[in-house]
Amino acid sequence: MEIVGLIALVTAFVITLFSVMLIKRLAKVLHFVDEPGERKVHQTPIPLGGGVAIFIGVFFTIFLAVLSVSLIKIYQPSWLPKVIYDYLPGVSSMIPRLTIIFVGGMLIFLVGLIDDIWGLKPRWKLLGQLIVAVYLVLFGIRLSIFVSYGPYFSYIITILWIILITNSLNLLDHMDGLSAGVTAVLSLIFGIAAFQTGQYFIASFLAAILGATLGFLVFNTNPASIFMGDAGSLLLGYLISVLTIIFTFYRAQGGYILYVLFVPLLVVAVPVFDTIMVIIIRLKNRKPIFKGDMNHLAHRLVGLGMSVRSAVFTIYLLTLGTGLPAILLYIIDKNSSLLGGLLVLFQVTLVLLIITILEQAGRSKNQSNGKP
């Protein structure tokens, strides 16, 4: 079934690639651009609308997949491998849930697009995210591992998780190629985890996200010729948050408890950690939480002398450093090795400690230069 994921990846890549080329031209005509500013690196207006291309790339690919399933069920071509037919019922059963995800994705995408066009105050963006999160919970998408603590606890944790991950990737969109690249890394790792546990439909969804982000990165790598805007970063954060929730971890012979609890946390550790650190710094400096500044890890790395590309690539590697051990948890938990699991968590803790040291070094250098 890996071939299905590969087809989804390539399809989303091609669709997004051509969508970006078209939207770039259209954005210039409509003057839908991001103007240079005090906290911005670019010196000339850069077209917006990359988020539109990502939306088209991901969901049109999924639409084509669902359409293909429907056609296969109708015509039942004999040349298809039997394994395809074995998985058709499972794919069909996911269509109602996919519809719920699509509606939520459309809503969060529109919130971001409105912000890109007219500008929204942070509280209205947060309200939009809250409405989408509540909508998902009401329609049954919630973190099942917390159900034993009561349904309301599960609802609250799910809503907080969606808002946290959505904002983490949204706030990460402050440097060329950063948010899209980190999302690509997250999608790759989760996709591998999905294939490990036989979750082929989820893996294909993640492959579509990976393909779309890679297609967008062709034009968004420093120096970027187009930005995704909030329409893109909010959508990507939303999709990752939702897929970590609905990811049905394979449970047999004991339940793979470590895998269920820690894989989502390890994979998104770097963007979440960066977001939490930035919020702490802003609160400490008595600055608004949602007001942008230069306190992100990528800014600190540039302050230490790295180029933008080097800083972004370093964060890719850090994300891989915390994410890849999550894949090992499947093997470790399968063999019921608590010590192995603890060693994986210790390794991730060391990566986060390295990030803290880099943050502190960058902050100290800025302060010595009279910067915040």
Structural summary, described in words:
The chain has helices at residues 2-30, 50-75, 82-93, 95-117, 122-138, 151-171, 178-196, 200-220, 229-246, 257-267, 269-284, 297-303, 308-334, 338-368, and strands at residues 33-34, 46-47. The protein is mainly α. It folds into 2 domains: 1-248, no CATH class; 250-372. The longest helix has 31 residues, at 338-368. The chain is globular, with a radius of gyration of 21 Å. The relative contact order is 0.12.
Strand order of the largest sheet: 1-2
Helix/strand structural class: mainly alpha
- Work out the number of β strands: 2
Shape: globular
In short:
This protein is mainly alpha-helical. The chain is built from 14 helices and two strands.
Question: SSE layout and pairings?
Answer:
Blueprint lengths: L1 H29 L2 E2 L11 E2 L2 H26 L6 H12 L1 H23 L4 H17 L12 H21 L6 H19 L3 H21 L8 H18 L10 H11 L1 H16 L12 H7 L4 H27 L3 H31 L4
Antiparallel strand pairs: 1-2
Helix pairs in contact: 1-2, 1-8, 2-3, 2-4, 2-8, 2-9, 4-5, 4-9, 5-6, 6-9, 6-11, 7-8, 7-9, 7-13, 10-13, 12-13, 12-14, 13-14
Which labels suit this protein?
globular, 14 helices, 372 residues
